[in-house]
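Hi everyone,

Forwarding the result from last night's run.
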Amino acid sequence: KSYSKIYEESTADEFEIKKIKFHVSMLDSEPILNNIMGTANTKGVEIHHCTISSDDLALPKEGARTCLSFYDANKNLKLHNNKLHNDNTRNGGGAIWVQGGSGGDINSAQASENVQIYKNKIYQKRPADGDEAIAIWGSGGVLKDVDVHDNILYLKGGGQGVTVFNTPSINTVGGGVYNVKVRDNIIHAALETNAIRVGGQYLSSEIKDIEVTGNKIYMSSSNESQSYGIRVTQTGSDVVVTGNRVENIGLTPISRGISG
């Protein structure tokens, strides 16, 4: 179904999904399914106590597959007590991705805002060039007031754990990511890069008021130069990293426990 990038109070959806199982298993000959579930232009969606999973009966190939993907202008979004399994051969996609709306400043009515992600269990195995499990990203729009807490993640392969960033492309302009908390999560990470990363390459000045607190990270990696428990790069202002625990449980060193 097509969706609007413009938030409209009169047409925005409000609904609850609970206690449902979704599973996607694709053959190599079948078309790529980018997302199992996604929404846009909403004002009160709650998804909880669901099991959402994906695997491929296929050789590795390009494309993305994300369990829950929230595109533009989602407000008052609650995602909790779900089990998400993303174990497929796609080099893109993750478990939960929340994008900004189409607004250009923090006060825009088009912002995606008031997002709660908590008490989910996430199991993800990605190829070497895979994406992150939880992405909090502006995508050229505004995303604000996000709380990611008390989740448990089991991660293997490429990609990252939790990321907070604005845009992956210099061609995407505007927007920002504001007031995000990543707190009290437990991450079991056998990764080649970062368990948690805050920051980005483009429009980094609009990543502001971020807190990474009270997380426990148990990490192993074979990449001694690019593996970080928590990494902060190229942000705007007021990034607080405190009270976290990073433990290397592997046989080789990781790059840093915490780096900024």
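The chain has a mean pLDDT of 85.

Cheers,
N.
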